[in-house]
Amino acid sequence: METIFVRRTIVTSIIFVILAVGLFIFWIFQNKTPPETPLVTKSEKLENIGPVHTVIGESVEGRKIDAYTYGDGKIHLVFIGGIHGGYEWNTVVLAYKFIDYLDLNPKVIPRTLIVTVIPSANPDGVYKIIGKEGRFTSLDVPVSVPTAPGRFNAHKVDLNRNFDCMWQPESTWQSKTVSAGTAPFSEPEAKVIRDFVLKNKPSAVVFWHSQSGAVYASECEDGILRETLAIMNAYARASKYRAIPSFDAYETTGDAEGWLASIGIPTITVELKTHETVEWEQNLAGIKALFEYYK
Q1: Are residues 161 and 23 in the same domain?
Q2: According to its UniProt record, which residues of this chain constitute the active site (predicted)?
Q3: Which of 271, 276, 279, 281 is the catalytic position?
């Protein structure tokens, strides 16, 4: 009996020790202070991330059409260069300069905004003149750039006549008759812009062109949107370009800006003064004026 009693006492003691150790370990874990996690604000997150780079489509000859997006606000502004390719190569350089600026100064974008830059909407036209794919600088441009070659895509279509606003198979550029494609959006580059717009539903769009030193409002058959006039005036005042509500130098059909107006998206055309200059400070002032308008 005494042996049984001793054994029971030992077993009880072991169980008690195990329970005590278990309770002690549980107490340690319950009272352990977790390492402090620093709080990261929304603005700090934006400051520390680069742009979201996406390939949104390809040209006739398979060259990439890139988009660079910054910020995560609700109001989406889109800036597009190079729809006339190598003929307006300076608009592509301007767009890449803007990308560089946003990389270095992300805080310039108000928290309410998301900004997308599509630097080259006609990469085949650029390649025809520059002989280089992707990014380039003014140093890569031949000393003498031909006038018409490079304006059109590889199908010899003027992309800024291939959109669905009063489209006609032939349109006008200065005193010349140009091909507008076989139907609205017959060209892959125009489809890329269309699909991007319909998917993302931007609040406003800016196209960079050259060379008349002015800001134009967009319109289609229903006239000019009131907000289009407001952003035209904001960009023009800040940049010191002329503000011109209606383009009347010659009749155009099927332009991208007009199509955007027809679906209710305020759009302006910013024309640089020459085919060679970027006029960075003027355009940065105009861009900031739009940021201020929409913030």
Answers
A1: no
A2: 271 (proton donor/acceptor)
A3: 271
